[in-house]
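Annex B.
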Amino acid sequence: MANNKDGTKPIAENRKATYNYFFEERFEAGMVLEGWEVKALREGKVQLTDGYVVIKNGELFIIGMQINPLRTASTHVNPDSVRTRKLLLHKEQIRRLVGKVEQKGYTLVPINLHWKAGKIKCDMALAKGKAEHDKRDTIRDREGKREVERAMKSRQR
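SsrA-binding protein: predicted structure tokens.
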């Protein structure tokens, strides 16, 4: 995978999140991981689609994110692929998030995982769920853009 414009290297993306939620605000958090998890992330053995972020006792945790262990994992390590992992964020940011998440309809959704300066970071968003008609609008817009691109491509030939 190639590096992004901002110097980060993507690991995994939660494309389903953009379909299911409106993003209000984005945050970048560090992650507390075990050694086997970092090795598995280097190989891209992660799934974010079922993950969500909760706040417990003033700390952030990501639940439901699955990191599949490598076959070459050590025998003395017991890998738990769906364990709860802690996210690292400044206290002021967490306090601000607590107030917003308690509002009706808001949740914290992981958007992607990426490398930044040798560390694994998790982008997450304060999001509000889309209604069914909003999802249909998203599909309609996407199909419209696709048709315009096809027309432009055929004209260039």
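The radius of gyration is 18 Å. The chain has one domain: 9-130. Further annotation is deferred to the next reporting cycle.
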